[in-house]
Amino acid sequence: MEGDGPDTMADLEKKGAAKFVKSIYPDSSSICILIYTSGTTGDPKGVLLSQANITSNAHAAMACFPEMNENDRGLSILPWAHVFGLAELVIYCHLGGSIGFAESATTIAADLGLVKPTMLTAVPRVFNKVYDGLWTKMNEEGGLAKTLFVMGVESGKKKRELAAQGQSSFMTNLKFK
User: pTM value?
Assistant: First the structure.
């Protein structure tokens, strides 16, 4: 693709400029994507999703996490053929954030260390596996590590309960100047 002449990037750009096609802007009812279901209740089927559906999913997710912004970084674990994985992509593109990609299901722990995401989007099964793995490790470690882990889990539960009531914890409100 480098250089001059036929079959190069420069040639492709010339051909494109010579046959300019005006952009077509979709409306909210335009089809955005065809996603296939997993077929958990029967045969897999294609589902047509509109522009409005995809943007609605993204806006609903962003409403759940209003603190997300362009400085956030995700680790894409779910395939984009999964509607929740696609919503993650749309959210980060909309916010101007960044996404790293998990190499495979077996490298997620290493990928987390490389990407250092500020947010993690996944289905409950993924979080349950992480949680179970942490409990196994903490039960093996015991001592202070397990005590701190249990305290962290309890603190997270309390924070979630307070957030559901529109409140926040003392430590969340504490700011140093």
Answer: 0.63
